[in-house]
Prior knowledge:
Elements: E1 3-7, E2 10-12, E3 18-25, E4 34-40, E5 47-53, E6 59-61, E7 69-74, E8 79-84, E9 93-100, E10 117-118, E11 122-126
Parallel strand pairs: 2-11
Antiparallel strand pairs: 1-3, 3-8, 4-5, 4-9, 5-6, 7-8, 9-10, 9-11
Amino acid sequence: QVQLVESGGGLVQPGGSLRLSCAASGFTLDDSYAIGWFRQAPGKEREGVSCISSGDVRTYYADSVKGRFTISRDNAKNTVYLQMNSLKPEDTAVYYCAAGPPRYRYCSNYRFSDYDYWGQGTQVTVSS
């Protein structure tokens, strides 16, 4: 059974850092799956934050997080990470990871509907 479990969320002050983890089971990350990180704040639409193409090392970042967030993967642990630095209050949201079976070469081409598997989400709150 395919399963994704996020962890690492919490409360952090502006300018602080958090590292989110997405542990995958039921499939192997390097089998050309795309892994995406999304976030949704209350009253706002879910937005893509970052993604990584597991078949290669292509990555994508939303303009709002470029230079602050870094996505990476550890194939041995079958886990994808999102390192979040210089956090801002506007980063407050529930963060979700999702996995999409091979479809496009670059993960930036995946739409929400292309991600078949989703985690339960982890809350990130940036506040002083």
